[in-house]
Amino acid sequence: MTSICTAPDCGRTLDTKSTRRLCHRCASRLTAQLHELQWQLPHLHACLYPDRSPTTGSIHGGRAHSPLPARGDVLNLLGAGSNSTLADPYDEARGDQDGPIPVDTMLRGWAEALAAHIRLAPAPWRRPGHTWVAWHIAYLPWTLTAEWAGLFHQELTDVLAHVRRITHTEPQRHVQDAPCPSCEAFGLVDEDWANYIECVVCGTLLTRNEYQTHARRVLPALHRIALQLVMAGTTTKDPDP
């Protein structure tokens, strides 16, 4: 029986020789998301306090009340929450606040699920000075074998969308010069924090070494063809009167 990637809306088949529950593409994206979130958290903390510049304009342009000492949308993501979001039969973890679930609450809930999955201590702990993101990065190989890996991937996608809207930062996509070796479309993209270069047309994944080898093989011929086309266009152009 063919196994399917557990990420919502993916549908790719899994390698039958692997115990992973995510395809290579989704596993790469989950890895990139964790590393991005680790990079985003200091920027999110920096957005906690609103601009404190004085109000300008006439006396009638002032505030009707004192401003909040911190941004509510950032507090929602950085503040404390229930200990778990998964073992929550009464939906109290998500119903006790307004807005998205706090980042630490979400990550600790999945850490508890992973601890149960690999039979670790029932209550996972993190080293002082480390984040739950770093914990998940360390245990990522085991996360990829869990049946709920796709749901974790989806929830991490949602959290990152909230964080990006606040920090106004997101991964940059760098279009590559060489065409895809599978579909020959010029759709290869190298995105920040990604482990692979991905074709946005057919979904082919290449390591950076594989891309460099491929580019060295095909780009010289493509450059010659481009130069010939330019020269042909120059020679066929009508002379000025």
Mean pLDDT: 83
Query: Class by helix and strand content?
Result: mainly alpha
- What spatial form do the alpha-carbon principal axes imply? globular
Order of helices and strands: HHHHHHHEEEEH
What amount of the residues lies in strands?
under 5%
Distance from first to last alpha carbon: 73 Å
If strands are numbered along the chain, what order do they take across the biggest sheet? 1-2-3-4
The description of the largest β-sheet is:
4 strands, antiparallel
Task: Kindly describe this structure.
The protein is mainly alpha-helical. It folds into 2 domains: 151 residues, no CATH class; 64 residues, no CATH class. Helix content is 45%, strand content 5%. Strands 1-2-3-4 form a 4-stranded antiparallel β-sheet. A hairpin with a 5-residue loop joins strand 3 and strand 4. Helix 1 runs parallel beside helix 7. The longest helix is centred in the C-terminal third of the chain and has 29 residues. About 4% of the residues have low confidence.
